[in-house]
Design a protein that fits this description.
Elements: H1 3-6, E1 12-16, H2 28-34, E2 40-47, E3 53-55, H3 86-89, H4 108-118, E4 122-126, H5 135-148, E5 155-159, H6 163-171, E6 177-181, H7 189-196, E7 200-203, H8 210-218, E8 222-225, H9 231-240, E9 244-247
Parallel strand pairs: 1-2, 1-9, 2-4, 4-5, 5-6, 6-7, 7-8, 8-9
Antiparallel strand pairs: 2-3
């Protein structure tokens, strides 16, 4: 089965940054804890200073690591991920903020290898790094890693920065893509998504309504909504024909 075949199923549950209510988000333990509780797992990827793709949501390290406690990094505020080499990130703990034991930074390579070993589907969100790296470089590094690990069939790529999605299609026609959207829908939404050549649309829950979902599904796009933590809302979205929802709370 590949990701598009997975979307033929209904009422899909996606673990938002892994099982983040039980484990530190975007870590290997969060991925492992998600197994058996969801249909696919969403993770966030960005690049280090030396172009290693790592799984971190924020563009800074302060919230999900112990960087503020490391004296030698005191002068490096605001501790942007892109200002640190992979070797430097390896010296940080990404678990203690969650009151758990030491957790190393998770690389995209390790996440993909784990997904391949466990036969897990991963929604890889590429964070907007357009102010730091050329778009072609950022996308190529990530696509190359997916190809290296032979996990194209297990991956869906999404991004709020939609130019990445067009580049992904040029580098790999096998990997499905999804446009993430917050605040409001783009004008002429259906035509716009066709222009991007995406397979799916991932809108914020606040801007999702039954009419839009019906139009998207009729046009052939898969629809997955974020972030849905209330049972009644989840039920309503599935009634409207939404394929899946992203949630922080796995059962």
């Amino acid at each position: 089965m590949n990701f598009l075949e997975l979307f033929k199923k209904s009422n899909l549950i996606a673990a938002h940054r892994g099982d983040r209510s039980q484990k530190p988000e975007n870590t290997l333990s969060a991925l492992a804890s998600s197994i058996g509780k969801c249909d696919f797992i969403e993770i966030d990827v960005q690049l280090t200073k030396d172009l290693v793709p790592v799984i971190i949501h924020d563009d800074t390290l302060s919230r999900t690591s112990d960087v503020s406690k490391i004296k030698r990094f005191a002068e490096r505020t605001p501790w942007r991920v892109s200002d640190f080499t992979f070797e430097e990130l390896q010296s940080l703990d990404f678990g203690s903020w969650f009151n758990l034991e030491y957790e190393p930074v998770l690389t995209l390579e390790k996440a993909l290898s784990f997904a391949k070993e466990k036969n897990l589907f991963l929604n890889v969100e590429i964070k907007d790094m357009s102010n730091t790296y050329k778009d072609q470089i950022a996308v190529k590094v990530i696509i190359d890693m997916i190809k290296k690990t032979q996990t194209e069939h297990l991956v869906l790529i999404s991004s709020f920065y939609h130019h990445y999605l067009s580049l992904c299609k040029k580098l790999s026609s096998k990997i499905p893509t999804a446009a993430l959207q917050i605040y409001k829908h783009p004008n002429n939404l259906i035509d716009y998504l066709h222009t991007l050549q995406v397979n799916a649309y991932h809108p914020e829950d606040k801007i999702t309504n039954q009419k839009t979902v019906a139009a998207l599904r009729e046009a052939g796009f898969f629809v997955n909504v974020f972030t849905v933590n209330k049972t009644e809302r989840k039920k309503k979205l599935f009634e409207w024909g939404v394929n899946g929802i992203f949630t922080d709370n796995l059962v």
